[in-house]
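Action item from last week, closing it out:
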Amino acid sequence: MDLQNKKIWITTGGGIGDTIMFTPALRRIKEKYPSCHLTFMTRWPNHTLLRGIPYLDEVTYIRRGTPLGRWRVLPSFLGLSDFRRQDAVVFTDWQPQLLMAAKLSRIPLRAGYPRENHPLSKHLTKHIQPHVFQSTDYAAETNANVFSDALGVMLDGDMTRLDIGRPTEVEHAYVSQLLEKIGLKKDTPFFLLSPFASLRERNWSLNEAGIFAKQAEKRYGCPIIVIGAPENEKEAKTISRYSLIGQTTVGELIDIIDRAALLVTPDSGPMHIAGALGTPVVPLFSKDLPSRWAPRYHCHPIYLDMDCSPCDDDTARHCQHNVKCMREIDADIVLNACDQLLQTDNSV
């Protein structure tokens, strides 16, 4: 398919990492077909990650859990507000409302992953074959294959360089205030520790995280700041005296990770932000593969490679081995990884 002067709508319902991992392939589409019009749809608030990226003509989002949250994009999608008609839509996730809208709008190419025995699957005109979780390859490279297959194009080249939107001046100033509030002077080097993940079974042990924070602060002579979602605030207090749990938006999280000398985190959103920014990161892998998700630069992943790894979320929730793939990652292992990464990067 010749994408010149075509209007392409691409969806993802995944998290922070899923959104960031699409950027190399999206950039390559625009490089090869500069006159095409790219609209990218993600989840709220992940659209902040793509703010100001030049090769995306439009970024929109759905907001799950709110009334009509999935329907808010339909006016733009159908061309009711901007009178544009899409030439192709690529569903990298299941979006039944938009699939029906695409069918009713007679959009010629409707590519996506069919759902077995689901009646709406028949409205897809193209079934995508490559899938991130069916490959051990780097997810950004697989995503390029996804778009190549869906759109009938060849997306070649380097897919390891990730892009991310930059914080606003207001966000930058607010982060400076937060750091000052917890006692850090301007330009004080610090580590970030984000021991929590969206799936609780992927969280790092609170005990080991606390040991790491104490030993790392002593070894490297810099504060260890804990970040994460508000629901983890009580747990974070047992880890470090420095905490910004639940105090940052996505834009502010980007800013603080950009300032950090190093980040330690499970395989989660902050890891991907660090990868896009070039912030040194030690990611702790449990149920998934570093080959698939770990940043390709300034990164020292830890993966114990258990016999039962990798697995899916449901298996992890009911793990018969007490998620030993994460529980057996101790503070010493992480400290050694930090040593090696910092020696290579000369970051502190």
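Closing note: The first helix runs from residue 16 to 21.
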